[in-house]
Amino acid sequence: IDKAYPRLLGGWAFEIADPAAGRILERVVPAGFASTVQSVCKKDSQELTEADRRAVFAACQATECGRVVVTHGTDTLIETAAYLGARHADCLAGKRICVTGAMRPERMVDTDAHFNLGVCFGALSLATPGVYVCMNGVVHRWDAVVRDTE
C-alpha cells in the first residue's frame, strides 16, 4: 500500500514511502472519525522478521485506541495478522484490529488502497474485538482467511 516507484538511472525500482493512510485520510475522512497515523516498519513485507512483527504488535498494544488499522504488504499480510491474532486474547483484548494492503499501491491510478482502507473503517465500526484481514471488500477473521493465489 505504501510502495512508490521513483525513476532511477538504469531502470525502475521501488521504495517504501510515507504511510499511504495519511494521504488517503487527508482526502476522505469518515464522519466522526479521528485518526493518528504511525509508521512502524518501512519494509517490503517479504523482508519482515519476527522482530518487525513484534514491533507491529507493540504498537497495537501501546495505543490507547481500541480500533487499529495495520497497512501491510500483501505478500505476508496473513502471517502478520496471525501473529497478532495468536496474541490477541492475552495482550490485545478489547481491541479491534484490521490488517489490510493493496494489490496496487496507493500511488497508482487504479489502486485498491482507498477501497480496502474504507472496508477497514466499516469493519472496525461493526466488528467485535479481534484481529481481522480486510481485502477486496471482504472481512475475514485472522484464523479463517485463505490466500487467493489467482
From TrEMBL:
* InterPro entries according to UniProt: Asp/glu_Ase-like_sf, Asparaginase/glutaminase-like, L-asparaginase_N, L-asparaginase_N_sf
- UniProt superkingdom: Eukaryota
Q: Which GO terms describe its molecular function?
A: asparaginase activity
According to UniProt, the name of this protein is: L-asparaginase N-terminal domain-containing protein
Q: Per its UniProt record, what Pfam families does this chain match?
A: Asparaginase (PF00710)
Where along the sequence do coiled-coil regions lie? none
Give all residue intervals belonging to the L-asparaginase N-terminal domain. Answer: 35-141
